Amino acid sequence: MALRDEMKALAISAQQASRLLANLSSEVKNQLLYRMANAIEAAEQSLQLANQKDLRLAEQNGMVAAMLDRLTLTSERITGMADGLREVAALPDPVGEITRMWLRPNGIKVGRQRIPLGVIGIIYESRPNVTADAAGLCLKSGNAVILRGGSEALNSNRAIGIILRQVLTDMELPQAALQVVVTPDRNAVRELLQLEEQIDLIIPRGGEGLIRFVTKNSRIPVIKHYKGVCHTYVDEHADLKMAEDICLNAKVQRPGVCNALETLLIHRDIAAEFLPLIAKSMGESGVELRGCVGARLIIPALIPATEEDWQAEYLDLILAVRIVDSYEQAREHIENYGSLHTEVIVTNDYHLSQRFLQEINSSVVMVNASSRFSDGNQLGLGAEIGISTTKLHSFGPMGLEDLTTRKFVVLGDGQIRE
Amino acid sequence: MALRDEMKALAISAQQASRLLANLSSEVKNQLLYRMANAIEAAEQSLQLANQKDLRLAEQNGMVAAMLDRLTLTSERITGMADGLREVAALPDPVGEITRMWLRPNGIKVGRQRIPLGVIGIIYESRPNVTADAAGLCLKSGNAVILRGGSEALNSNRAIGIILRQVLTDMELPQAALQVVVTPDRNAVRELLQLEEQIDLIIPRGGEGLIRFVTKNSRIPVIKHYKGVCHTYVDEHADLKMAEDICLNAKVQRPGVCNALETLLIHRDIAAEFLPLIAKSMGESGVELRGCVGARLIIPALIPATEEDWQAEYLDLILAVRIVDSYEQAREHIENYGSLHTEVIVTNDYHLSQRFLQEINSSVVMVNASSRFSDGNQLGLGAEIGISTTKLHSFGPMGLEDLTTRKFVVLGDGQIRE
After folding, report:
1. Chain A closest CA to B106's CA: distance in Å?
2. pLDDT tens digits, residue range B6-44?
3. Distance to chain A for B357, nearest Cα, Å
């Protein structure tokens, strides 16, 4: 069968399965996830055998160590996949919730009820655990899911898919509810992205190249996250010890992730005191600082920051530092260079805290807390399918609820329109 | 300036204006809309002069009467535009609402707050009143708006734009908040659709050709509505008089709109009684019926329905009729042929009414009411910017709230991540 027809047939069967999934009870969906978790753990050996095939090929192809690590399914990671499925099973089911209901003057009652989106396509790169994590979130929210991982994880993804699909069959549910696209043909993604009649949402997870490719080629709505250039603004009325703790945590606790601090903005009135303080503790943690002219007046040894530094998502132990004249200048800097991901103010000025929350329209805005909390689990969503830095449908960390939409339900008693 | 640069400059200025708009008080936004309404009414003569230019050109180009009618700005329609702006001003402001807030175990409070989307592009066809209607809804929800109407309404749209923008200037607000693209170059839309860094949402309003063009060419998220193939299922336990009233209203009260009834499904056990009844009243209203084999066994004179009839959005006094064996068969028909717009069941069976509401996942599902209520005003949204038959972001009639998104706000007291 031609690739185009193959992808279309797969998507049509997913759409058919999605109608059944939409009406499964929470109990059945939870049981499905618990049984999938058990099946993953029981299959540890065969999963590792499949994974070793991928690892051997990757080594032959000269994959770098960090990537090889991501690709590896250790015993711990396999348990992690199973536990992830159990955690999602334990979350409240968003489907069916009637978020509001009101009465119209003519007597009809109008409500809005959560329903699954339908069919969700996930396009991702090397980590094979995404296969189980994304499947769990999609199925729990009543959606069918089409998974397309990276070619380097093909054997691992196929093996995970076989295990999870067997559980569907055991429970007399259609295997089409969960499909793992394992054809090595790189055009498979391109074909999937054309199927707007069958697939309701595409979530790309991976590097900027993947995300730009998907956005450019998709006729299906895409929820995406380009990068996180997160700012922390230390105001003149900040508790400097608190500011130090927050900035240090945001930068060094895990520097390689999108909610790590990238640019520190400091009010000029406390810069002479705060900058040496934070420079010292950052230095002790191995962080390289790059400063604006004002910062280098205070610490001449700082590496000069350039225009590129204000735009940089370092994902590394590097921090850009700028001294600002005012809150307004900090806000303007964030508007010009921010990525709409997460911004933090550290201040004890109540009025200013409220202005910051109000005026900064990034997906997450925080007062007196580390930007590292910008994460679905940390914010209390239970689990995270991704982070959106575009505003349609979802903005910020996305949980189960973001995999649903709302229909209108109308209860009448014979009303007609005048 | 090249068209590409011109569109980009326009979108950048809209984005800058959107930051200011996002923080305007409801009072200022309402005053803006009331003053725009007054300005529109005061400018009736000049609007009609501009409109006459469009009408003369359209006549020379041989535009058909129905289209000429849509294009005409009568005195009544100008008052209608002004009243529309006043109605939107009187609606509650969705911006700023904190829809939920919760406490995390570590003491941070997490909430979700409504903010404007940013910059909204509206691509529409001949009706010039869309210029004022869409501008009102976008501005009230704190968004900047870029309006691109049809070339046949260019002079009318330009005139409306000048009037509305003058009010922005009078109130010391940036004109860039409301931009009317009047270049006759047809590539303007294509260029706008590439500006994903500046424009947050595109809403096309018009025929299927326009909508398909926009979807195919846009890198910006699009909320769209292809067509409305609305079904009413008359169950064996329906009150037949109620069913007759509802079906008649849904078909003939305004047949040319997307929420009009297109296919009637009748349970076989009441078909022999109900079909002659509804055929008679439809006939008296000038409706042509096209029936399945079962329907023609009851009324042999019916025109046979073909596969195309089940897919048809007639927008006319034509109705497809099918006799079904069961609720399940009706549901299957809706799943196969529906457009996810609006479906109605007429029944007095409580259990079945609940199954229908639960199992049919069109954007609006109704019990015992006319599908003609599937409209933002009728459902109580206050005003309507469009109807979405895709599920991302909005599903069904869209009001002011659908022109917003939600950011996370986090209130901490020095928390850092372990």
Report:
1. 10
2. 999 999 999 999 999 999 999 999 999 999 999 999 999
3. 7
Helix B26-42 and helix B75-90, axial crossing angle in degrees, nearest 10 = 170
CB nearest to B249's CB, from A113, A370, A417: A417
Sign of the dihedral through C-alpha A365, A368, A371, A373: negative
Domains of chain B: 3-224+397-409 (3.40.605.10), 230-378 (3.40.309.10)
Are B417 and A102 within 8 A, CB to CB? Answer: no
Please judge whether B368 and A110 are an interchain contact, meaning their C-beta atoms are less than 8 angstroms apart.
no
Contacts of B131 (CB under 8 A, 6+ apart): B147, B149, B156, B157, B160, B161, B164, B180
- Structural tokens at position B186: 């047809």
B193/chain A closest Cα distance in angstroms: 12
What are the helix (H) ranges across A22-145?
A: 26-42, 44-60, 65-71, 75-90, 129-140
pTM above 0.90, yes or no: yes
CB contact B369 to A (< 8 Å):
yes
Whether the CB-CB separation of B161 and B169 falls below 8 Å is answered with no
Give B70-81 pLDDT, tens digit per residue. 899 999 999 999
> Best mutation site among B15, B106, B416 for testing chain A: the one with the most A CBs within 10 Å?
B416
Size of interface A-B (CB pairs under 8 A): 212
B216-224 mean pLDDT: 90
Which pLDDT belongs to residue B249?
Answer: 98
In angstroms, the CA A98 to CA B120 distance is 29
Q: Which residues of B touch A370 (CB under 8 A)?
A: 412, 415-417
What end-to-end distance do the CA atoms of chain A give, in Å?
54
Place of tokens 């096309």: B204
Interface confidence: ipTM more than 0.90:
yes
The answer to whether the CB atoms of A409 and B369 lie below 8 A apart is no
CA distance A325 to chain B (A): 21
* A13 vs B: CB within 8 A: no
Both tokens assigned to A224: 């995406």
Q: Tens digit of pLDDT for each residue in A207-258?
A: 889 999 998 899 899 998 888 999 999 999 999 999 999 999 999 999 999 9
Q: How many CB atoms are closer than 10 A to CB A193?
A: 23
Helix (H, G, I), strand (E, B) or coil at B123: strand
Mean of the pLDDT values across residues A112-124? 97
Quick check: B127 pLDDT over 90?
no
How do residues B246-279 score in pLDDT, each as one tens digit?
999 999 999 999 999 999 999 999 999 999 999 9
B196 touches chain A (CB under 8 A): yes
Task: Find the mean pLDDT for residues B143-161.
Answer: 96
